[in-house]
Amino acid sequence: MNEEKQTYIPIEKLEEFKENKDSIIIAVQISFKNDTEEDIHEGLIELTKETTSGTWVEISTVTEGSTQADGWIVHEHGKIGYIGIPAHNWDLSGGFNNLPANIMGNYFGLGTLKQARFLDVYFPPEIVKQFPGPRFGVDGIYKKMGDMKRMITGSIVKPKMGLNPIEWATVAENVFKEADLVKDDENLCNQVFCPWRERFTETMTRQQAIIEETGEPKMYAHNITTIDILQRARDVKALAEELGTHHYSMMVDGIISGVNSVHRLRMQDDLPFPIYIHRAMHAAMTRSRDFGINFLVFAKLFRMAGADYLHTGTYGSGKMGEAESLHPTLEEDDPEIIPLELLDDTAYLNRAITKSWGDLKSTLPMASGGLFPGALPRIRRFNGAIGNAFQIGCNAGGGIHGHPRGTRVGAKAFKDVAVAVETNEYQSLEEETTRRAYLDDFASMDGNEHVKQAFDKVEWGLLV
Questions:
Q1: Active site includes 278?
Q2: Rounded to 5, what percent of the chain is helix, strand, coil?
Q3: How would residue 61 be classed by pLDDT, with cut points 50, 70 and 90?
């Protein structure tokens, strides 16, 4: 049992999958009583009843018809149970508001369970095809960015709170002069010190001037996380039309606002703009190993709902405490079994939102959280190892604004490293020592002092 509890079988790889593929299937890891095989089985029965049609005692109100809502155990693998749920249990008229009640509902509160971690979910094709998925997807986003053949480089304006609209837009302008994308952070929306209209007007006016001067595409992800997201989105669109600009995305704090908010935004034909999802607050549910929900579950839901961009992680290159190496299993295109701790690894998440899934377009992974110029080589290498090549967005806040020569130079260093690691010569290097030597030589070339200063900064360094 020890061996089994350390590994995970993807739902579609189960022997029982074919006869259950028309149902919703969830994978949950539990701890119950003394964790014997019999205990885990008993615990999974209780979980299955609680999330579908059962309750904790025998009742007299069961009918022949009510059993159509019963769940069942599809498979058991150590402490992991794969639970089948009838597809019709999801009231699709309630969209993503009704879904959590069916797949994440009351069982987390069962006092008899010592552990309950929701690992993964599968939806049958008949359900998936009823949701729109991304409007643009990875290919569409790259088309908007001029079909560049490198990682998209962006920045979060820092300090993320406290600047007035002109101060904020000035920082954004210095990023736009060199890099590709600027975004609001999760908690900046319409504060008294930085009202959204003034911030958007100042930022887009400066962005447009840079686009006209350089001919290079730019993107601003503007936070519309409000009590009425659709109205704010329409207000943003109206202001953009008044300004004569259109290089922007609608940013939503997806966990906080709810997946239904993202879905509703995606369904508006009069708002045909990319949707950028910040995953603020996710760790409150995803970080614990005992009770919680893998972000993989949310990533799948956001892709179904219509997210074009999604924060997923930094491949161990930032401040969020992720693994700093890529496990060989994650390089496999379609592994039969994986170590359990890899299920919420950035590489597994990024593959999930970019691989083929019915008619849904792929979602662009966004790496954000403690990045800096010298982190990009590792991100590019790991992303290439899972088959995504350069198709990833990378955002740096302090890793750009903390450059010794300021924001614009920091943004230039960030973009220049993204360009350097895309050369055929660099991509042909297989050893860490030769990759590091190449980048050190690049940083030592005349005109690249800004890159060397970034690599030499004690808090940053170079990750290859």
A1: yes
A2: 45, 15, 40
A3: confident
SS3 228: coil
* Cα–Cα distance measured from residue 130 to residue 133, given in angstroms and rounded to the nearest whole number: 9
Give the DSSP H or E segment for 44: helix 37-51
Phi then psi for 266, rounded to 5 degrees? Answer: -65, -30
Q: Pairing state of beta strands 291-293 and 338-339? A: unpaired
Q: Which of 79, 144, 158, 218 is labelled catalytic?
A: 158
Residue 115's beta-bridge partner residues?
31
What are the structural domains of the chain?
2-124 (3.30.70.150), 137-456 (3.20.20.110)
* Residues 140-196 pLDDT 10s: 999 999 999 999 999 999 999 999 999 999 999 999 999 999 999 999 999 999 999
Q: What is the pLDDT of residue 1?
A: 44
Distance CA 216, CA 179 (A): 10
CA 332, CA 327: separation in Å to the nearest integer?
Answer: 10
3-state secondary structure of 121: strand
According to DSSP, the β-strands at 80-85 and 24-32 are antiparallel
C-alpha to C-alpha distance for 202 and 164, rounded to whole angstroms: 11
Rounded Cα gap, residues 287 and 307, in angstroms: 22
Q: Under a CB-based contact definition with an 8 Å cutoff, are residues 240 and 247 in contact? A: no
- Out of 183, 237, 278, 300, the active site residue is 278
pLDDT bracket for residue 58 (50, 70, 90):
confident
Quick check: 347 and 375 in contact, CB under 8 A? no
* DSSP for 295-343, written as a single string: HHHHHHHHHHHT-SEEE---TT-SSS---SS--GGGGSSS-S-EEGGGT
E runs forming strands in 238-317:
248-253, 275-278, 291-293, 309-311
CA-wise closest residue to 365 among 176, 141, 132: 141
Average model confidence (pLDDT) across the chain: 95
* 238: region left, alpha or beta (phi > 0 left; psi from -120 to 50 alpha): alpha
Can you tell me the distance from the alpha carbon of 277 to that of 302, in angstroms, rounded to the nearest whole number? Answer: 8
> What angle in degrees, to the nearest 10, is found between the helix axes of 259-266 and 295-305?
20
Query: What is the identity of the amino acid at 99?
Result: L
Report how far residue 248's alpha carbon sits from residue 245's, in angstroms, rounded to the nearest whole number: 8
User: Distance of alpha carbon 155 from its chain centroid, rounded?
Assistant: 16
Q: Which helix (H) or strand (E) holds 456?
A: helix 449-456
Q: Characterize 413-427 residue by residue with b for buried, 16 or more Cβ atoms within 10 angstroms of its Cβ, and e for exposed.
A: bbbbbbbbbbeeebe
Q: Judge whether 96 and 261 are in contact, CB under 8 Å.
A: no
* Start-to-end Cα distance in the chain: 38
* Distance from the Cα of residue 44 to its chain's centroid: 29
How far is the CA of 6 from the CAs of 99, 117, 120, 338, 343, in angstroms? 28, 14, 15, 9, 11
